[in-house]
Amino acid sequence: MQTDVGKNLKSILSRIESAYKRSGREPSSVTLIGVGKTITAEKILEAASNGLKHLGENYVQEARNKKVILKDAGLTWHFIGHLQTNKAKAAVELFDWIQTVDRIELAQKLDKASSKLRNEPLPVLIEVNIGKEPTKSGVMPEEVRNFYNTLSSLDGLLVKGLMVIPPFFEDPEMVRPFFRKTKELLEDLRLHSRYPEQLTELSMGMSHDFEVAIEEGATMVRIGTALFGERKYSR
Fold first, then answer.
1. Which CATH number does 4-228 carry?
2. How far is CA 83 from CA 133, 141, 230, in A?
3. Are 170 and 181 in contact (CB under 8 A)?
4. Tens of pLDDT along 100-117?
């Protein structure tokens, strides 16, 4: 019998397929990342048994605790939260991707740990503050090219693209210009990069706006609430 999580996953995958068909893109060109923040390992295991292959976590310690239970679930682990510099080594040990590289000091720490702990470069995304919001992390859009040039010189990292958390609007259509601008930034990087073939990823879109994000070029969508239900935060 299919669980609620299984039904939610099936519905999301159907909506993803419809969105990329509307945008004229190839099937399987979008990676669904389930967002596990505050979600139990047992519920994530439920999603994995129904076909979820990628998991995003916001906190190093929470991921470490869950990985004990989920070690055989066959998941690819993405760090999608704000990463403290002193947690860089632990993040490299735990995660397959780091999606939120937003400052040089962090990149250097990740590079150092990756060079020691991994046999190949660590895939990373540059987090862009696409709405230039003072309360959010991320590289300012006009600084992305210089930031990328610095990161691409670090042997332990492989820059794969960009990640954004745009301003929130109830109407997803209001977010469309921010997604479009992010795609333009990636295209600019490809135009000026010595390695344009490596710049393939746009991580953008969450539960309320992922269809618009896909229509604007997202290759990764990060979905929590629509998959696992409303989060329950401890008081």
1. 3.20.20.10
2. 18, 20, 24
3. no
4. 999 999 999 999 999 999
Instruction: Give pTM, 2 decimals.
Output: 0.95
Name the DSSP letter for residue 139.
B
The set of residues, in sequence order, having a beta carbon less than 8 Å from that of 8 and lying 6+ positions away, is: 226, 227, 228, 229
Q: d(Cα 205, Cα 219) in Å, to the nearest integer?
A: 10
Q: What is the pLDDT of residues 134-163, one digit of tens each?
A: 999 999 999 999 999 999 999 999 999 999
Of 7, 84, 23, 57, residue with least CA distance to 212: 23
Q: What are phi and psi of 127, to 5 degrees?
A: -80, 125
User: Judging by DSSP bridges, how do beta strands 97-101 and 31-35 pair with one another?
Assistant: unpaired
Best CA proximity match to 65, nearest among 82, 29, 46, 90: 90
